[in-house]
Design goal:
Helix content: 40-55%
Number of helices: 9
Distance between the termini: 16 Å
Structural class: mainly alpha
Mean pLDDT: 95
Largest sheet: none
Oligomer: single chain
Radius of gyration: 17 Å
Low-confidence stretches: none
């Protein structure tokens, strides 16, 4: 309910459903139904537990991360971020309740700033993080419209790209959207939750 109050005022400005935004946030960082409760337990430069000889955060992300941390006044050496995802063989480094990678955040921050009126939006603060999620989902949905037209497909596709990247396509995309064998089912799981959230929110708008 608190998360809805934060993001819903920007729903029409950004052009993405609050239900979809909340479902992604829930998938990214919820524990015991509380969005933002799981934002990671690692730090950016510590040794990765599953990538031999590597740090938690990829070298390609570090300069953006350090710039972000300087702008928002947080200590990069002590601020918690996501750990590496061993089952995927991937780096960690995602920040805050919306779990943004630094390069992605760095590229979207000015748009978030214009929407909410904050000079240096922080991925660790709810308003900025939630707004950025909606902005990224809108970008994803625009890309998804080249292949899909139905709402459920657009929502599932937008969510899948949130996790897998804007360029996600082909069987990897459809596997995530429709929960086919060998998939993370990310897009499908977000869609199911978003449709339920939509039903929950509807009476509040009467």
């Amino acid at each position: 309910g608190d998360a809805l109050k934060i993001i819903q005022p920007y729903e029409s400005t950004i052009g993405i459903s609050s239900a979809l935004t909340l479902a992604v946030l829930f998938q990214e960082s919820a524990i015991d139904s509380t969005i933002g409760k799981n934002i990671g337990k690692c730090t950016y430069n510590q040794a990765s537990s599953c990538l031999s000889g590597k740090t938690v955060m990829s070298e390609t992300q570090k300069s953006s991360y350090l710039s972000i941390m300087s702008n928002i006044g947080l200590n990069p050496n002590t601020t918690p971020i996501s750990c590496a995802i061993c089952r995927d063989g991937s780096y960690g480094g995602a920040m805050g309740p919306a779990q943004f990678m630094p390069v992605t955040w760095y590229g979207i921050a000015s748009r978030v700033s214009n929407i909410i009126g904050i000079s240096y939006p922080s991925p660790f603060e709810n308003l900025a993080a939630f707004t950025a999620s909606a902005v990224l989902l809108k970008d994803n949905q625009t890309r998804c419209k080249t292949a899909f037209s139905k709402k459920n497909d657009l929502w599932s596709c937008s969510a899948a790209k949130y996790y897998g990247g804007l360029s996600l396509s082909g069987s990897t995309l459809t596997n995530s959207m429709y929960c086919r064998k060998g998939s993370s089912c990310y897009g499908y799981n977000v869609l199911k939750r978003a449709l339920q959230f939509e039903k929950d929110i509807a009476p509040l708008n009467l």
